[in-house]
Amino acid sequence: MSYLSLGKLKKRFKNEVVLDGASLDVERGETVVVFGPSGCGKTVLLRLIAGINEPDSGTVHIAGQEVTYLAPEHRDVGMAFQNFALYPHLSAFDNIASPLSARGVARGEIERRVHEVAGLLKIDHVLHHLPKALSNGQKQRTSLGRALAGNPGVLLLDDPLRNVDAKLRYEMRLELPRVLKAFETTVIYVTQDYKEA
Q1: d(CA 74, CA 69)
Q2: Which of 26, 59, 159, 169 is the most interior residue, by most CB within 10 Å?
Q3: Distance (Å, rounded) from C-alpha 72 to C-alpha 145?
Q4: Tens digit of pLDDT for each residue in 38-62?
């Protein structure tokens, strides 16, 4: 049985059909790239998997459980956004720790996980900085760290390299597979850049 299964997802906004019967089966630990131009529904697909939006019809199953209408915090999902979506008043450490804190994870375990993820992402030296003091690359790594800190069964990456410069984009394309392998998570990676696909 697939770890992530999408069954005939449909979503429309006003009169525009954004998804019309999207189906997908992904095994545990597998990475799937969803490639397409801006506005074709890639981010909407991720938001339906994460539970940020509800489909008009269709189903989402994670680890054999239907989660179609389950709240985002009750799904085994982490998501990194193309615009970073960091809390501006929290340090990089606290941004990465935020989903763990919300779930009531013990402080010692939070510190261990944040430092482990920050080490893998090579941002341990900026953990005390606020987002405004971080480069775009550091912001993206912090966003990715927040998504990974809870060791989710499904990791959703929404065009994660779109807002970083070409040099860093190249470096992250090489580095990202190493980081993801350490977590053995199922990954849905959306992009409009054919080099990332």
Answers
A1: 10
A2: 159
A3: 18
A4: 888 999 999 999 999 999 999 999 9
